[in-house]
């Protein structure tokens, strides 16, 4: 079992920055690819970013590319999402996910583990 706990969601003004964290625990969590998704009210879940288990490969959704950066700290078993130049349309609940295969995350497939989410609100 892998447990994922997100944190860092907050209310921020447009143009501001925020960093989300996802702390992973569990016997095999260090070998899992990790990713972020978001879901705004009334909208479908959207892929945000993913990172391979060794941190070498990173992938981004089109709407956040160039503004968001995903990274991971293996010593802390934590994945981060640095969000810059935030826009009101970035408002959503952000979820952390983990899977053995990064391709599953990128494609939005049936991932092995999910966190409960953290709310990001961007005011105009």
Which descriptors would you attach to this protein?
11 strands; 124 residues; 1 helix; four-stranded antiparallel β-sheet; seven-stranded mixed β-sheet; mainly beta
Query: Which range best describes the helical content: under 10%, 10-25%, 25-40%, 40-55%, 55-70% or over 70%?
Result: under 10%
Spans of at least 5 consecutive residues whose pLDDT stays below 50 are none
> Termini separation (Å)?
40 Å
Number of strands: 11
What is the structure about, briefly put?
With 124 residues, this protein is mainly β.
Describe the structure.
It is a single chain. By secondary structure, the chain is mainly beta. It has one helix and eleven strands, in the order βββββββββαββ. The protein has one helix at 102-106; strands at 3-7, 11-13, 18-25, 33-39, 46-51, 58-60, 68-73, 78-83, 92-99, 113-114, 118-123. The strands form two sheets. Strands 2, 4, 5, 6, 9, 10 and 11 form a seven-stranded mixed β-sheet that branches. A hairpin with a 6-residue loop joins β5 (46-51) and β6. The longest helix is centred in the C-terminal third of the chain and has 5 residues, at 102-106. The chain is globular, with a radius of gyration of 13 Å. The model has no long low-confidence stretch (mean pLDDT 94).
Topology overview:
Blueprint: E1 3-7, E2 11-13, E3 18-25, E4 33-39, E5 46-51, E6 58-60, E7 68-73, E8 78-83, E9 92-99, H1 102-106, E10 113-114, E11 118-123
Parallel strand pairs: 2-11
Antiparallel strand pairs: 1-3, 3-8, 4-5, 4-9, 5-6, 7-8, 9-10, 9-11
């Amino acid at each position: 079992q892998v447990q994922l706990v997100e944190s860092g969601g907050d209310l921020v003004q447009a143009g501001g920055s925020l960093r989300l964290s996802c702390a992973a625990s569990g016997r095999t969590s260090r070998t899992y690819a990790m990713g972020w998704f978001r879901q705004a009210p009334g909208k479908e879940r959207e892929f945000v970013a993913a990172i391979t288990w060794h941190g070498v490969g990173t992938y981004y959704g089109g709407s956040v590319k160039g503004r968001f950066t995903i990274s991971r700290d293996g010593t802390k078993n934590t994945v981060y999402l640095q969000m810059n130049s935030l826009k009101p349309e970035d408002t959503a609940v952000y979820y952390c996910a983990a899977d053995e295969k990064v391709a599953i995350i990128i494609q939005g497939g049936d991932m092995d583990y999910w966190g409960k989410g953290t709310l990001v609100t961007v005011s105009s």
